[in-house]
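Before relying on records like the one below, remember that each one covers exactly one chain. Contacts with other chains, cofactors or solvent are not represented anywhere in the record.
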Amino acid sequence: MNKLLLSILIALLVFITNMVRAQTITGRVLEKGELPISYATVQITEKYGVLTNEEGRFLLEAKKFKPTDTITISYLGYKSIKLALKDFKSKDYYLIEDINTLSEIKISNKKLSIEEILEKVKENVSKNYATANIKQQIFHRSTNKVKFKRFEFEFTKSNLLNKQELKKLNASIDSLITTVVNVPSTNYDDVLSELYTLQDTSVLKMIKATRLINKKNDKSEKIFQELFLNTVAKHLDTNETYKVKSGLFKVEDSLKVKMDFDTSYRDSIPVKFMKNNYNEIITNNSISKESKLDFIFKTKKYKYELKGTSMLDNELIYVIGFSPKRKSAKFEGIFYVNAYDFAVVKTDFKYAKNRSGKGVNLRFLLGVKFKENLKNISVLYKKNENGLYSLQFIKQEKGVYVYAHRPFKFTKNRKSRAEDKKMMKIDFLMEMNQVGKEELFFISEKQLTKSEFDKIKQKKKCKVTYISKYNAAIWKGYNVINPIEEIKNYDTGEVVNE
């Protein structure tokens, strides 16, 4: 090969490499002091853009766009940055705070009271928000963390095992508990779906789903119960079968030691379950009377404070704080209202002091207590080219406390009435905290006709791809939220066979 041809090939390779690199742009959006701006918008066109993650990081696939297309980086309360795509590089971008004062709030030459603002918000709901007959593409990331606070057990009765066998079983359960209590369990799920909604009916099309989990360290309630039962079963007679009961409920009728309890992982997700989950989250956080946003629609339950104003895309925004006035009010936080069309463009709220969510206390009847003790929610609404607002992003974090004080009874199935009734009772007490976070990024939204809706058929299941380490290539070409460093660095060390 001559030198000229070699030089041309090298130059061509460099050019192609640079082009490929340019198609994917990464960076951070920060404010003064190097603080990250979470969930800022990085937009190319009216219909295409991404959000930064909690650490302010973004990943943008730009190969479909022209070098002259405009990139806009924006966030409520900050001055936007605009630049051509050809000048948009992988680096840090800094937004400057856009400060206003209450004296600037004047609509139709009249300074509005907070009561008037709240009334106008409710009056304009039907004008401001897109509702039914839409197709939404949704990227959903969920994080689930389980931490055991306490686990204790006691043999209350046993003529099933002798003292030596009980000692060995006791050591096995102790080892299991030590692992459970000392090592928290975490898993991350990513799902890409399309939700088709026609009036009150919806259909979900799941495109792709992954789960990042250390299977050996999974301490979910279902998996742990099965591990516990397996630990006990391995110390029983391999030639016999056993009934297993927990309180009033039968767990297993014919447990045989060589047949382990099923600790396998689902290879798919029920699509109906995911659809119901999305519909509930969307309904609860939409600006409508059916939502759980009672601080917007049931204003007599709360007290309000006009904290000031801000700016979003050169439009004035009211900043309204709220807290409970009545016992039935549960939340405190801030929401943001466009001063010109009175649309709510953002909400940030959580349980107020001494407030909590739903729970069940059957501690004395069934030995079980459940309480939702944490809720933090942030919602962004975006105006489309038709001037209507729709959901852009929802982040909800929920914490649950679980208490269980339960007996397990293992009884050997007798082959005849003449046999002695052999049994073993184990009493255990468990306390755990579970924190789940869900992030829903509404990538796109389009109008939907009935004929289009009728063509969509919902499947029963969607295959789950289990991964032991985050792999960005899985989502190559998709418009997703960049994972935080915690996810990127999560490596189970396992080899997972899909």
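Confidence is low (pLDDT under 50) at residues 8-22.
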